[in-house]
Amino acid sequence: MADLATDVLVVGSGAGGAITAAALARAGRTVTVVEEGPWVPADAMEPFSLEEMVAKYRHRGPAGALGNPAIAYVEGRCVGGSTEINSGLYHRLPEYLAAEWRSTYAIEEFSPEALGGYADRVEAELSVAPLPGAPPPSSAALERGATKLGWRNVDFARVFSYDAQGRGTKQTMSRTMIPRAVASGATVIPECRVVRLLRRGDRIVGARCRRTHPGGGVERLTIKAEHVFVCGGAIHSPALLQRSGIWRNIGNGLKMHPTIKIAARFPHPVDHGDVPTHRITEFSPFVAIGGSISRKGDVALALADTGAPFADALADWENISVYYAAIRSDGSGRVAALRGVRSPLVTYSLSEGDMSRLARGLVHLGELLLAAGATELHPSVAGGTIVRRPEELGSWWDQVTRARATIMTVHLTSSVRMGENRARTGADSFGRVWGYSNLRVNDASLIPDAPGVNPQAAIMALATRNCDHFLAGS
Amino acid sequence: MTDSPTEVPSGPAAATVVVTGASGWLGQNLVRALAGRERIRCLVPSDDQASPLALIAPAIEVVVGDVRDPATVDRLFEGVGAEAAVFHAAAVIHPTRSTREFFDVNVGGTQNVLDRARRSGAGRFVHVSSNSPFGVNASPDEVFTEDSPYDPYLGYGRSKYEAEQLVQQADDRGDLPTVMVRAPWFYGPYQPARQSQFFRTIRRGRFPLIGDGTQRRSMAYTDNLVQGLLRAEVADKAPGNAYWVADARPYELREILATVRQALEAEGLPTSGPERLSLPRAAARLAERLDTLAQSRGRYVQPLHVLGELNHTIACDISRARAELGYEPTVELEEGMRASIRWCLDHGDQL
Amino acid sequence: MLWFEREVVGALTESPDQPLRSSVEAFVDGYLRDMPEHLRAGVAGESVLLGTYVAALRRTGRIPAGDAAALTTLVDKWETSRIGVLRSYAKVMKSMVLLAENELAPAGGA
């Protein structure tokens, strides 16, 4: 068993962990980052490919939150975390939500000006830009349909930087903040899983880890630390805290953006390499509409959901693109570490209001896609009508039920929550876990509720803010 | 008290009106009040509800379909030019299959109608809302005002709350001018079968009086409510606002039961049984807990809901509707109940 | 990977191309291996139960032995079962094979 000592231990290297490591290393602190997953070179695999899924996703693919219905979700597990596998879409936390949360959760220093300042800093560090030039067909379809219906729509920016030829590179953490952290002196240890944090009274004194070597051997490693930042994401931050005996307001209140999909067939070929950047904001904050990755495998999966024969449609897959409607959920879920088992139990409960919102989202999405010129709509509903005309959309209302709808989420947040309202939160306004003097969380689990937009912008702004606070206090 | 509403600055009534929920209890009263307009486009859920409405006036056009269905709402607005007034009364209060209906119809339907109304350039959208997004009053003396905070009561409350958010958002972001009229428990002609049951039960002295019956309920006679909706359509100050519309004052529950019995007697229907059938508050609280439990499982059990709600004060203040809409209720409880009873008798229901 | 799981994957994989079939099986094997443990236990439990059930059907001649189409038909039936966990089982197996087969197939073919 080997021992390491460090000043700041950062658990996880995703949007929260990488920002934390870079900020603290730059300020001269001795930082060690442990990442459960491997280091995968950024250009090693085709984005969204099966190969990438196997290498970079936890569980090699989607996992499921149990419930009625179960909800599929994905997490990145590699250096850079979920930023290595996401769409890169970037949207600041809406001001009205920040105001609501400031009040409900009693979050200090949470003014629009302050948050805007942190977002400015994040954007200066990374490159945030909209897609240059004309949108590809999959994205253009959203704009076309929305224009016809008079629905508000916008092209979202992404953390992408573009070269002179207009070729874009996603600014993932492994390309940006992790190398900067290392350049500032941080150590990054991949393939190193924190089994448990070691506590003494109200202090964390270190972490018990298991590190896998390239050859395959597993080594037990104890890392002593003066300060610990847990950045494992909305599932694994609470799971680690629970494994370490910290349970109060940890793991409950998990939030998702439950999503229902349509595979839309167009009378012309569409692109398949990237996630559409266009979004329909007409029904925000209740329903958001956008496009999903539509490689052949994704199209096949989406077509299979109705249960009807789809060989004919699959043969035409190059004309098919997958779209989604995501809802604001009033339901919530729970993460619970299980004794003796590596993976926590994840559950989520959708309310009747949620189920209705999903049905409504599906119908709106259907209207949009037909207006955009789609000729055939395959909903992610078992036994769902394959819609070809607007008059058929109404049938979906009664078909979207718990037993028949296929629901997934790409976003997970809120399983710890930040704020001075101790009844509702697991950490204070700056991510310090209640009851501990040197333990912080700095990732999506702090966001008090689902943000209704891709969370990475909020995660990174909050992480920057919390690091400032840590540095000012120490 | 004058018969005609106080004069407040108002615009003209629209030549073309669109009414959803037209064959419902409120809708039938509303459509009759609108019968003089040039064009009245009505939405009803099924064919058998179409012809009785169409007979009211030649200017009435009926569209049959589901308010959740985009194609139906397209047909509803087809050929309706700009500046029409939309009265959105389509809603589910007592679902027959599951609590999903609350949300599908009350929210999904509202969204469709808002969307089409916006696209057709409607001049005003009058939304029929409820006390339910506000829950219950903390004490029998308290009343809801337009500044009261949201506190949705169960599934219906949550769905009407979400609907209010959609309607308010539409006005806030400039889609079209909207007004919300919050109607409490209403009564009057064209009532459904369940309301006859209400009269029958009271007539035989079997209607439960929870506790001492001093809990207060605002009620709205249909004529009063329709007047409020029509004022909301034209009052200059209305767009972007919500208004409580009800009879002049809330009534104690014991007063409601006593008044209905008097009204029955006055209309020649002798009453029997005890003057009041007391039921302890604990029974109503249990019913409410069971209602909450059932609804959390997607089930709606009407008697449980009704019994649970009878324990509470749900009362509102109509001052703002008076001041800004020029609303002035003209009918009081006994007169309104007598009119309802007469309507039942005229329609062959002996109660 | 349990024997029944291998059978199901084999039956669901449409392509006759042997290297592709092996890749699909390897993918599903890895996926099952890496599942959250309690979910894996549930799937394994169902595989044992369903495997026993299918073996019984074969013994009694209700379905022909070694007939991939018959097994596929059964899996399709399970996908519309009223029993939630049976639906999930069928869906997971079908989805993973569908995804792998379409993604791993050589470009232009399938």
Describe it.
The complex is a heterotrimer of chains A (474), B (351) and C (110). Chain A has helices at residues 15-26, 50-56, 95-105, 112-125, 137-149, 177-183, 233-243, 296-304, 311-315, 352-371, 396-399, 456-473, and strands at residues 2-11, 31-34, 63-65, 71-73, 89-90, 153-155, 157-158, 160-162, 168-170, 187-189, 192-200, 203-212, 218-230, 252-256, 259-265, 278-280, 287-291, 320-327, 332-336, 345-349, 376-379, 407-409, 412-413, 439-441. Chain A is of the alpha+beta class. Chain A has 2 domains: 2-126 and 171-252 and 414-473, 3-Layer(bba) Sandwich (FAD/NAD(P)-binding domain), CATH 3.50.50; 137-165 and 258-409, Cholesterol Oxidase, domain 2 (2-Layer Sandwich). The model of chain A has no long low-confidence stretch (mean pLDDT 96). By secondary structure, chain B is an alpha/beta fold. Chain B has a domain at 16-192 and 217-250 and 315-331: 3-Layer(aba) Sandwich (Rossmann fold). Chain B has helices spanning 25-33, 50-54, 70-77, 100-119, 154-172, 193-203, 222-234, 253-266, 281-296, 302-309, 319-325, 333-346, and strands at 16-20, 39-44, 60-64, 85-88, 124-130, 178-183, 185-187, 208-210, 216-217, 219-221, 242-244, 251-252, 277-279. Chain B has a 7-stranded parallel β-sheet with strand order 3-2-1-4-5-6-11, with helices on both faces. The longest helix of chain B is centred in the N-terminal third of the chain and has 20 residues, at 100-119. Chain B is globular and about 55 Å long. Chain B starts with 15 loop residues before the first strand and ends in a 5-residue tail after the last helix. Chain C has one domain (3-104). Chain C is built from 5 helices and no strands. In chain C, helix 1 crosses helix 5, helix 2 crosses helix 5 and helix 4 (68-79) crosses helix 5 (84-104). The radius of gyration of chain C is 14 Å and the shape is globular. Chains in contact: A-B, A-C. The A-C interface holds A 49-50, 54, 59-61, 63-64, 68, 70, 295-301, 304, 307, 314, 338, 341-346, 382-383, 403, 406 and C 27, 30-31, 34-39, 76, 79-80, 82, 84, 87-88, 91, 94-96, 98-104, 110.
